Amino acid sequence: MARDPSRVPKLADVARAAKVGNATVSRALSGGKNVSSDAMKRILDAVLDLGYQPNRVAQSLKGASSGIVGMIVPSLSDMFFSKCAEAVESVTRERDALLVLVASHDQDTNVLSSFQRLLLHHIDGLILVRSELKNGALIEGLRHSRVPIVGIDRPLSEIGCPSLVCENFEGARMATEHLLAHNYKRIVSVQVKPELYTMKERLRGYRSAMANGGKRPIEEIIGSREDAVRMLKRHLVEGKLPVGLFASNNLTARYICEATHVLQVSIPREFAILSFDDFDLADTLTPPMSVVQQPVENLGRSAAELLFQQMPGWMSRQAGEGAVPLQLSPQLVIRGSCGCHPQRRTRTMRASSFSLVTTGD
Amino acid sequence: MARDPSRVPKLADVARAAKVGNATVSRALSGGKNVSSDAMKRILDAVLDLGYQPNRVAQSLKGASSGIVGMIVPSLSDMFFSKCAEAVESVTRERDALLVLVASHDQDTNVLSSFQRLLLHHIDGLILVRSELKNGALIEGLRHSRVPIVGIDRPLSEIGCPSLVCENFEGARMATEHLLAHNYKRIVSVQVKPELYTMKERLRGYRSAMANGGKRPIEEIIGSREDAVRMLKRHLVEGKLPVGLFASNNLTARYICEATHVLQVSIPREFAILSFDDFDLADTLTPPMSVVQQPVENLGRSAAELLFQQMPGWMSRQAGEGAVPLQLSPQLVIRGSCGCHPQRRTRTMRASSFSLVTTGD
DNA sequence: CTGAAAGCGCTAACAT
DNA sequence: ATGTTAGCGCTTTCAG
Predict the structure, then answer these.
(1) What proportion of chain A, given as a percentage, has pLDDT over 90?
(2) Which chain B residue has its CA at the smallest distance from A286's CA?
(3) Are A246 and A272 in contact, with CB atoms under 8 Å apart?
């Protein structure tokens, strides 16, 4: 029978009901060390009876953990980031923590101000996604931060923090090799934001594969659908063999798709495409888009789990369950746009193992 | 010259530096009422000098606002919701508040537990997206909540809170009328989660238009791509006229797209499609998908602004700037899948005004 | 094992 | 206009 209707029970109420001191309740509820089993029982009863839940604000003012995790992403509406965020959110929810999401729009100044804002709220940890870390003040601020930080999509060596990234180099190399196997006249790397870490790595992978194949790398940078149209026009080729395009991420792929649509050119007859990053409807395009698929869900979950391991007072699931690997393998998913015979079955390949998998119907 | 390196300055530090009492600093920083311009100046100097920023945790413990807004969405990785969230986040960021995002996965129990968790963190307000509100305990909890709540995508009449929704009925009616104008043999409504408020409204709109057109409504419910395949097979028609499909949301449209792809049927030769909800790549499909576009960004921003208006201590931008309209008009965007001649230019129509707009190439 | 008491940093009376 | 003081609800010494 719960006591008072409208009032939120506080720790002191529990103490009174259990006929013990405040301190004993506090101890009982956090670890239960130094509490007689008798007192413990009465306290637990009172907690249940009153429906008591500790006030997190008071807890965090006192210096204990706040139960709030921050996450800074470039954008919430990009599928890659929102899937990451969703994975992180599910971990925080499992642990009864809260996730604060902030969009940086790829601006260091936003990252810095958001970070400070988060600190004022006593966050317990931060997940930083694809932040460029150019700004000196930002780097200093992060480096001396007392809250643990885990990165995603880019190493955080500048600030000495762990980060979860996909094997971008391998993925790009694998993709390029696949295109090479098709014997296209030329194979072009197309990127949208070449300054990003991931883009540089993927470019390295592309170059490496091209060098191995004895081909001259051709590298394009676009920033809009219109750019993509101009770029495609330049590469419209007389010969029979189509051009192979390696799109470095989903945005690039989207621009190219839109451009091929505008130009009414045929895929993969005139242009073959293979893209980094999977996306909605990729397998419904005509032809379905072959992609290098990142383990997005896994990146998010692992980052969150690693973060919790580093947050004092949030001991990991099974303590010492093992280190989280910081590099995750992408998969090559062949669907048709690369020029492969459009079959019903999708072929899949993992970067590290190179095993060939076949997925259902 | 900032004082101490590693220590975060507190209000008392400012007071000391400015040679005034704590209370004066507090007053100066919140409204600046009852502070001599002389003291004010010294305080501001000290604040700048020390780089002081008020500790939000202490503020919220004291009972003032916490600067945290909660938002419960069914999913973070669905474009509709993540775009909403992004709009809300940009408003909270403008106001120096933080946005906590929680995924409910359409489960009332999750909504309830998340709501309680949010309350323990003293959130200032809540945005509730498409919650079904079946659970009695949830309704009670929300109704008696002392924090303002604003809904999105579904009215919140059960708990007496305002909500921003799209004119679903009008949008669906408009879409169906458009399909009717094509004179298809039959026009079928397809839905994925008929129990949702939006789906019911859209069904009403569909029925209304069908009744007006003197046609018998045909209503399908699917839950997967396989369902869509079976559904399409059933409707494969002998005659020349294709079947017109009204997909009630983007997920429905996706299933149908995948199904047409599997069945290798031609759009809009055999099946014409018009979908509620726009989505990435909709205009890159073959043929591009005609859709009823919701003003997602606007829904999010308006909901957030309305919420801030209701949060004590966060007076709205220009006080009394006017009431936020709770109904927003969707737009009909014709791209080709409905059977219209695939033109370069996209035709657009707003639900309320029915003006015909033409958007550039 | 337990409880009394001192804050965490801030705000809001209540004096002055 | 300004300073003093009493908490907000909790954790944590520190004596019993």
Answers:
(1) 77
(2) B286
(3) no
Mutating which of A112, A120, A225, A275 best tests the B interface, going by the most B Cβ atoms within 10 A? A120
Q: How far apart are CA B168 and CA B310, in angstroms?
A: 26
B63 touches strand D (CB under 7 A): yes
The residues that bridge with B334 in the sheet, in sequence order, are B347
The per-residue pLDDT for range A265-298, each reduced to its tens digit, is 888 888 999 999 999 889 888 889 999 999 999 9
φ, ψ of residue A103 in degrees (nearest 5)? -100, 130
Write the DSSP assignment of B216-259 as a string of letters: --EEEE--SHHHHHHHHHHH--SSSSPEEEEESSHHHHHHHHHH
DSSP-assigned letter for residue A181: H
> A323: which residues sit within 8 A by CB, 6+ positions away?
none
Compute and round to an integer the Cα radius of gyration of chain A: 26
Q: Are A34 and A23 in contact (CB under 8 A)?
A: no
For chain A, the distance separating the N- and C-terminal CA atoms, rounded to the nearest angstrom, is 55
Q: What angle do CA A229, A232, A235 make, to 5 degrees?
A: 155
Q: CA A261, C1' C8: Å apart? A: 61
Which amino acid does the sequence have at A10? Answer: K
- For chain B, report the end-to-end CA distance as a whole number of angstroms: 56
Residues from chain A that touch B76, judged by Cβ atoms under 8 A, are 76, 82-83, 85-86, 89
The per-residue b/e assignment along A68-80, b for 16 or more CB within 10 angstroms, e otherwise, is bbbbbbbbbbbbb
Nearest to B205 by CA among B187, B221, B226: B187
Contacts with A281 from chain B: Cβ below 8 Å: 254, 257, 279-281, 285
DSSP state of B9: P
CA A119 to C1' D13, whole Å: 27
Residues 6+ apart with CB under 8 A from A246: A172, A175, A176, A179, A187, A188, A189, A190, A206, A274, A275, A276
Nearest chain A Cα distance for residue B163, angstroms: 22
Strand, helix or coil at A99? Answer: strand
Instruction: List for chain B the helix, strand, coil content (%; round to 5).
Output: 40, 20, 40
- The identity of residue A294, as a single letter, is Q
Contact criterion met (CB < 8 Å) for B68 and A100: yes
Round to whole Å and give the CA distance between B179 and A361. Answer: 33
Q: How far is B101 from chain A (nearest CA, A)?
A: 6
Distance of CA A104 to the CA centre of its chain: 14
What are A107's strand-pairing partners? none
pLDDT of residue A35: 92
User: Which of A76, A105, A285 to mutate: most B Cβ within 10 Å?
Assistant: A76
Tokens of B101: 């995002």
Which residue has 């009925």 as its token pair? Answer: B169
> Which residues, other chains included, contact A42 with Cβ-Cβ below 8 Å and sequence gap of 6+?
A18, A19, A20
A47: helix, coil or strand? helix
Please write down the long-range contacts of A183-186, taking CB distance under 8 Å and 24 or more positions apart.
A183/A241, A184/A241, A184/A242, A184/A243, A184/A244, A184/A272, A184/A339, A185/A237, A185/A239, A185/A241, A185/A242, A185/A243, A186/A215, A186/A218, A186/A235, A186/A237, A186/A243, A186/A244
* pLDDT score of B347: 59
- In the structure encoding, which two tokens stand for residue A29, read together? 């509820």
Flag if A53 and B283 touch (Cβ within 8 Å).
no
Distance CA(A328)–CA(A351), nearest Å, equals 9
pLDDT tens, position by position, A208-255 = 999 999 999 999 999 999 999 999 998 886 666 789 999 999 999 999
- Phi then psi dihedrals of residue A292, to 5 deg: -100, 115
Whether residues B79 and A79 touch (CB distance < 8 A) is answered with yes
Comparing CA positions, the residue from B196, B195, B177, B197 lying closest to residue B187 is B177
Looking at the DSSP bridge assignments, the partners of residue B73 are: B103
